[in-house]
Design a protein that fits this description.
about 500 residues, mainly alpha, 21 helices, disordered N terminus
Length: about 500
């Protein structure tokens, strides 16, 4: 069994690759999605996201919760690809079943032919797209285990670059809803083919649709499968409710807020992709190192998510108008609510993967059930009176309740992820007060001053300990910079 701790240089390169790759993809999305929203207008932008929500929900029926288990088992033995082979076969079987059942159900419900066709087209992304996290996600696992994420990250960035090019060409082709659905699919094909090529070249990986691991994967993954379906319902049900029980306009306004906030979820996924195999390998061998790694990961995610929430809270409508255009100025309020929901979601995302690393994945199912029931209950209560604002409130409340459940569960299992202390609470209070005062400034000076305030208070209040600062800079081979920062 492979238990060797990877060298620091390899970890550093992997972290850097993920951060740069995810950051590049995030930037490209920030360029392409607002442009697409402007071309389509609020109504059709809402329709696009409605189709995306349906296909995303269907794709998670294909998921079967396999990825964390396959990642865990392959991390234990990096030369055994049998779990990957079986996972791909199982997901392909599920894809066929889900597509057939969807078409039958849609026909019975008399869904329009064009909506059925576009949803079927979207389902192609289950195989080829990294955004849908199905087959491509499984194919990325050897790169994750070997800490060579620069390949998948570069390919994902290329996918997003190609989509941006298609978006820029939209006026030349009279790009409407059908055009954007088509290019959303086509932009993923070159990257998918390149990943297949690199797997064979770097790992001598040959696709073998084996069945020997399927029963084990099904047994281990069922609790996570339930969670995956529930969390997808949680993430998409607000769009479905708005479209079917309110209006296309409200769907478009809320979708713009989602498109600005949700992409930041790549940040906890980047951290998990790096620390997960290390946590699994060190479990029972170097638990103290695991504790330090987990602690600094939570503190880093809180710093990032709280910064985004604080910066967005006092200039929300102005930010949305600048990015998406004047027609989306009402998206400011749901954007604030979703950014604060992200603070709890960042914690929840990392905590759930740690539960899996410690073979406690059954808790993920309970968590999924709690947040879905809470979210739907508040949606039914608030949607008729508050439209997209009520939807944002429902999301915030349900993520907070999920945070409480995971925190109490971790304490019960004696694996508490305690990282909050008086310094961090003081940092949040002081930063919020100062950023509020700075909000009288124009947008760009405000964003610059906000960044300075965040870092200044983090330094003054010692948000990170000296040991943690050295570890962070060490990850990027800049330990001397960390030592200079400590001495100042």
């Amino acid at each position: 069994m492979y238990l060797e701790t990877p060298p620091l240089k390899k970890i550093t390169r992997n972290v850097f690759s993920i951060v740069v790759g995810q950051g590049t993809s995030l930037l490209l999305n920030f360029l392409s999605i607002p442009l697409m929203a402007r071309y389509l207008g609020v109504g059709d932008f809402g329709n696009f996201n409605y189709l995306l929500a349906i296909s995303a929900l269907l794709s998670k029926l294909v998921d079967f919760g396999l990825t964390p288990i396959v990642f865990r088992e392959t991390s234990r033995n990096k030369n055994d690809y049998s779990f990957i082979h079986s996972a791909i076969l199982l997901r392909l079987i599920m894809l066929v079943l889900v597509v057939v059942l969807f078409n039958i159900t849609a026909a019975l419900l008399q869904v329009s032919t064009i909506e059925i066709l576009l949803c079927n087209m979207m389902m192609i992304n289950v195989i080829i797209s990294s955004k849908f996290q199905n087959i491509r996600e499984i194919l990325d696992i050897p790169f994750k285990v070997e800490l060579k994420m620069h390949y998948p990250m570069a390919v994902a960035a290329f996918d997003n670059l190609l989509f941006l090019i298609f978006v820029l060409l939209a006026p030349q082709f009279g790009g409407g809803l059908n055009y954007f659905v088509t290019v959303y699919i086509i932009s993923n094909i070159p990257g998918f083919l390149f990943i297949i090529f690199m797997l064979k070249r770097k790992f001598e990986f040959k696709l073998n649709l084996a069945t020997q691991r399927i029963s084990y994967l099904v047994k281990e993954s069922l609790p996570i499968y339930g969670y995956v379906i529930l969390i997808t319902i949680f993430s998409q049900v607000d769009i479905l409710f708005l479209k079917n029980f309110n209006s296309e306009y409200a769907t478009g306004i809320y979708s713009a807020a989602m498109k600005l906030t949700i992409p930041f979820s790549i940040l906890p996924s980047a951290i998990v992709a790096t620390i997960f195999p290390i946590i699994v390998k060190n479990r029972g061998i170097n638990d103290e190192q695991n504790r330090k790694t987990i602690l600094i990961s939570f503190k880093l995610l809180l710093l990032i998510s709280a910064t985004l929430a604080l910066a967005g809270s006092f200039k929300a409508s102005e930010i949305m108008t600048f990015i998406f255009g004047a027609q989306y100025h009402e998206s400011g309020t749901p954007m604030i609510l979703l950014f604060w929901a992200q603070v709890f979601l960042f914690y929840n995302y990392l905590a759930l993967d740690l539960f899996t690393a410690f073979n406690r994945q059954s808790y993920t199912l309970f968590y999924g059930g709690i947040i879905v029931v809470t979210n739907v209950s508040f949606l039914l209560l608030l949607l008729p009176q508050s439209t997209y604002v009520g939807v944002g409130i429902a999301k915030l409340v349900s993520t907070f309740i999920g945070f409480l459940f995971l925190s109490l569960s971790a304490y019960k299992l004696k694996m508490s992820f305690k990282f909050l202390d008086i310094r961090i609470i003081g940092w949040i209070i002081l930063a919020a007060s100062s950023i509020y005062v700075a909000s009288v400034l124009p947008l760009f000076p405000y964003l610059l001053i906000t960044s300075i305030i965040i870092l200044m208070y983090a330094k003054l209040l010692k948000y990170f300990s000296d040991e943690e600062i050295l570890l962070l800079f060490k990850l990027f081979n800049k330990e001397k910079w960390g030592q200079k920062l400590i001495r100042k």
